[in-house]
Design goal:
Length: 82
């Protein structure tokens, strides 16, 4: 699939997700083959490319994903959603 044929992720989604992901140590946003992803080193901890969203639940899932993928020293620095 050529870049022009890839579905676009709404900018609002990327901004909302980045507000969550940027709180995590060493987490960086980058363009992916489809959509946008956030990585720590070579581990992808989130990848958005479309769908419907419950933002509160997503924040919890992203936090869990991050904490499972990163070294324990980084996970220990993350405040978990209530």
């Amino acid at each position: 699939m050529a870049p022009k044929d890839r579905p676009l992720v709404p900018e609002e989604w990327v901004l909302r997700l980045d507000a969550i992901m940027s709180r995590f140590p060493d987490c960086a946003q980058e363009s992916a083959w489809v959509g946008t992803r956030w990585r720590v080193g070579s581990a992808t901890v989130a990848h958005v490319f479309g769908g419907h969203t419950d933002w509160s639940e997503l924040a919890e899932l992203l936090t869990d994903s991050y904490c499972l993928q990163v070294p324990a020293r980084l996970a220990a620095r993350v405040e978990r959603p209530a």
